[in-house]
Every structure is written in structure tokens, then in C-alpha cells.
Amino acid sequence: MANEMRTYTAIVTREGDHWLGSIEGLPGANTYANSLDKLREYLSETIILEDDLADDAVPAIDLQFDVSDEVLCDALAVSHRRAELAAVEAEVQASTATVIRRLTGAGYSVRDTARLVGVTPGRVSQVAPKRRLVPA
């Protein structure tokens, strides 16, 4: 293969009812489609051909939109904010699990841990390590 796998950047525009995509750094790697899903599929096929990749390659494509339509710009802004929120949510979930394990490991009850962390006791029970029963 000519190149190792990398992320390709596609500049996407809108013309009428079609999405147009052009891969940066690959002259001639251009295509269009009626939907973003089809555009991504066609861009992938174009990259495979233009960059001499294996037929079964799945190139990573970063879509960069170059649009001036106000509603599209608003949609892209919402999408960006949702991605940021998902990243923060994943971070908070990981921190929550860590704190739950620390609290229960330090002897705090499931109910107190739940109250302190702001989750349900059921969630604490799911996350906290199971305690072994010690025979009497």
C-alpha cells in the first residue's frame, strides 16, 4: 500500500440537494451524494482508489463543513456541543465510579455513598466491588 492508515480530512459543501466532498491532500478525490451517509461511503471509496489502499480498507474520515446556511451552522454547533457534553459525561461517570469504590472501600454504607455522590443506591451496588461474606 502507498500509505499507512491515517485520518483523511474531507471538506464538505452543499449545492442544491447534494453534499459535495473533497479530500484534502488528494487531488482528484472528490465526490457527491444525496445524503451524508452516502457521501461518507463514496469518499471512502474515492480515498481507497486515489491513495492506493487495500480494497477492504476503512479509512478514517473527518468531515469539515464549509457551509454558510444558518440552520446548517446551528446544527453543526449543536452537534459539537453534544460531543463535548458526551466527553464530560464519560469523565463524570468514571470519576463517580472511582469515588463510589473509594467510599464503599472506606466503609461507608451503600445508602450514604449514594447520597454523597448523587446517584441511586442501586447504582452504587452495581459499581462497588462485591464484599465477600466471611464465615462466622
Structural overview:
With 136 residues, this protein is an alpha+beta fold. 49% of the residues lie in helices and 18% in strands. The protein has four helices and four strands, in the order E-E-E-H-E-H-H-H. The chain has helices spanning 36-50, 70-105, 110-117, 121-127; strands spanning 7-15, 18-23, 30-33, 60-65. It has a four-stranded mixed β-sheet with strand order 3-2-1-4, covered by helices on one side. Helix 2 (70-105) runs antiparallel to helix 3 (110-117) and helix 3 packs across helix 4 (121-127). The chain is elongated.
The helix/strand order is: EEEHEHHH
| Rg estimate, integer Å | 24 Å
**Going across the major beta sheet, what is the strand order?**
3-2-1-4
* Main sheet characteristics: 4 strands, mixed
Which stretches are low in confidence, meaning pLDDT under 50 for 5 or more residues running? Answer: none
The separation of the N and C termini measures: 66 Å
If helices are DSSP runs of H or I spanning 4 or more residues, what is the number of helices? 4
Structural class: alpha+beta
Strand content: 15-25%
* Overall form: elongated
Mean pLDDT: 92
What's the total number of strands?
4
Helix content: 40-55%
